[in-house]
Amino acid sequence: MIKRERVADNVFSFQSEVYAQVTAGAVIGPNWALVIDTLAMPEESLEIRSFIEQEIQVPIRYLINTHYHADHTWGNCFFPGATIIGHTLCREWLNTRGRASLEEARKQSNIYRQVKIVLPHMTFSQGGLSLRVGKKTISLHPLPGHSGDNLSVLIEEDRVLFAGDVFMSLPYIVDGNADELVASLKKISKMGLENVIQGHGDIVLRGEIDGAIKDNLAYLSAIRKFVRRSARRKFPQDMLADMTVEEAGKSRVLIGGLADSLHQRNLRALYEHMYGKLPQASEDEYDEDYEDEFEGEDEEVG
Ligand SMILES: [Zn+2]
């Protein structure tokens, strides 16, 4: 159910084969281990736990939540012995929005019956936090953009970064902020990394990091331009619906095939962030002038 890779000595990454290529990680010390995120499904969290506790045979002492979203935190309850660390906002949002969405999810599926929200025990919101696991130094820093509570986790000696969702094969800004995401990606590009474990997607190797960041920055700039153009139309929503993810320079097979629907949500969220509530689509409010409105208005803005 999960794909496991050894990223460096005593450092592992896990990738879900069932949900959106979401990732998690582990750093194994001589006496205990640290886990980064939990994946989405109970069986997946339990698979990570049994790999560490049964196969490697060390207890899990710490669990880091890179941010509060379900696919990274709903497994917290399956690591009962661990101290959970997260951003102060992660604790707050998991307690409010997280509880609400778990209630919703329970109505739709039995899978989450056994899930309980467990909040981070230790939080911070500024500066950083360092932990030693065996001979490795793990440093945590806020890195917002995908969400306001995103933490990155750097294994300093290996130059391996677990970036959380601020780094994905398709940037996702619906719960975040595009400007912050751009700033965070630029920060990552200066870190001199061997590997980036993206929150969703495959491991990015040293030689691919610059290209992947450029690619993500180009995507963000393409959707920004497109949203600006759409704002000049009477029915911006129609124009946004027509922009495919390929037109923004990304493939639709990314994120386990969810790319186009995430992209559509990005466009609408960015519009609302820049211009306020998105007007209704034309089919909701069709009028005769519709066709004219769409002619001769193709010049680039901004
Ligand atoms: Zn995620």
Report on this model:
The chain has 302 residues and is an alpha/beta fold. Strands 1-2-3-4-5-6-7 form a 7-stranded mixed sheet. The chain has a 6-stranded mixed sheet with strand order 8-9-10-11-12-13, covered by helices on one side. 43% of the residues are buried. The chain has helices spanning 42-56, 70-73, 88-108, 178-189, 206-230, 236-242, 254-257, 259-275, 290-293; strands at residues 2-8, 11-16, 23-28, 33-36, 60-64, 83-87, 122-124, 129-133, 136-142, 151-155, 160-168, 195-200, 204-205. The structure holds zinc ion.
What's the layout of helices and strands?
Layout: E1 2-8, E2 11-16, E3 23-28, E4 33-36, H1 42-56, E5 60-64, H2 70-73, E6 83-87, H3 88-108, E7 122-124, E8 129-133, E9 136-142, E10 151-155, E11 160-168, H4 178-189, E12 195-200, E13 204-205, H5 206-230, H6 236-242, H7 254-257, H8 259-275, H9 290-293
Parallel strand pairs: 4-5, 5-6, 6-7, 11-12
Antiparallel strand pairs: 1-2, 2-3, 3-4, 8-9, 9-10, 10-11, 12-13
Helix pairs in contact: 4-5, 5-6, 5-8
The structure holds zinc ion.
Helix content: 25-40%
The geometry reads as: globular
Unreliable residue stretches: 286-302
Mean pLDDT: 92
Task: Report the total helices.
Answer: 9
Sheet with most strands: 7 strands, mixed
Structural class: alpha/beta
User: Which value, in Å, is the CA radius of gyration?
Assistant: 21 Å
For the termini, the CA-CA separation is 46 Å
Unique bound compounds? zinc ion
Order of helices and strands: EEEEHEHEHEEEEEHEEHHHHH
Biggest sheet strand line-up = 1-2-3-4-5-6-7
Beta-strand percent range: 15-25%
- Could you give the count of β-strands? 13
